[in-house]
Amino acid sequence: MSQDTDGGAIPALAEEHRMVRDLVAKFVERDLMPLEAAVLKRESEGGKYGLTEAEEAPLLAKCRELGLVGLDVPEEYGGADLPVSALMAIEEEMGRTVTPFIFPPDSPNLHMLLAVANAEQRTKYLDPYARGEMRSSIAISEPGAGGDPAGMTTRAVKDGDDWVINGRKIWVSGVPRADFIILMARTGEGKRQEGVTAFIVERGTPGFIIEREIPMIGGRRTYELVFEDCRVHERQILGQLGAGYAPMQLRLNVRRLQMGARCTGMARRALEMMCEQAKNRVTFGVKLADRQAIQWWIAEAATKIHITRLMVRDAAAKMTAGQDVRTEASMLKVYATEMAQEVLDNAMQTFGAMGMTKELPLQLMANQVRVQRIYEGPTEVHRMAIARRMLKERG
């Protein structure tokens, strides 16, 4: 099955972008996959899921050597300015490994900063972030509110030239290594997106407290944050006062497309492993590859991976053209995560008892996909949003 075969009007990747994707595929196979055994062993023994400094440093150096830093960063900031479609093809390749590594910078927050950062913020935060010299995270969800912005209670109150922030955030990723976080807080009285403002809060700001670390399935860790009279200057407002929801939505759309691409990569890896096991494993005198149940799993997986890839490319092309892709992003978030979970489960079943071990990457991928059905909006919320838009359009 060709990765470059498209249907309808969905554009295929340009040759130069295929070359970058192929370079990333080689990086994944030669540099990241060999680290999987050590990563899986540490995680299975109760250690943190991640790379050691000794493992990560050579990877970052190799990335810079290969030009794999700032891939979708605009040229004016020293990046390659790849379109969303090319970036998603790269994300698919990265999804094939459980070695946790990201080409800096993390794209969703980059796109939010590019959209609304002012000149001072571009110099202080965006420039070093685009070069991979700073890390960031974003704090949106709150205890008891989840994915519903109407439940957001963290509030910022004006005090002279400062804003004083009080409240809690939860399920925030990457906090200990972040140089700054993008914090969503209420500054107005709107019920949903109205009155929500984005603030840049630097690590070490008084009143910014990491309350606790929360271990998640799939090896991930998130954090609960507390803000107690956390004072930031009005220069730290990201974008317009009371208008933080729209750029946050842009950031979420990028992340949802990214998740779709990563799920495609994980499902590809599972399908590859399933096919290899089916060709080699014999039960009751018959190869698994000759059993109809396994054949149907393989056929379904190949078909659904192809569908998901086309969905990613369609949404990416529309996003590049400046179209509203909220519906496409929601559809992709739902379909890709459920597709990957099904393919991974069937691959684990094909391996039998071996598929239940922590020696294979399948179990870690399966748990990571299970988490993805919750974060960046639960599946049920996305289905509700899709239905509402369809009904409104046909009203």
Report on this model:
The chain has eleven helices and ten strands. The protein has a four-stranded mixed sheet. It has a four-stranded antiparallel sheet with strand order 2-3-7-6, with no helix packed on it. A two-stranded antiparallel sheet has the order 9-10. The protein has 395 residues and is α+β, with helices and mostly antiparallel strands. Helix 4 (84-94) runs antiparallel to helix 8 (292-320). The model is unreliable at 1-8 (pLDDT under 50). The two termini are 41 Å apart. Residues 15-133 form the Acyl-CoA dehydrogenase/oxidase N-terminal domain. Residues 138-230 form the Acyl-CoA oxidase/dehydrogenase middle domain. This is Acyl-CoA dehydrogenase family protein. Its cofactor is FAD.
Helix vs. strand class: alpha+beta
What is the overall shape? globular
Number of helices: 11
Order of helices and strands: HHHHHHEEEEEEEEHEEHHHH
Radius of gyration: 22 Å
Helix content range: 40-55%
**Total beta strands:** 10
The residue ranges in which pLDDT falls below 50 over 5 or more consecutive positions are 1-8
Widest sheet, order of strands: 1-4-5-8
| Average predicted confidence as pLDDT | 92
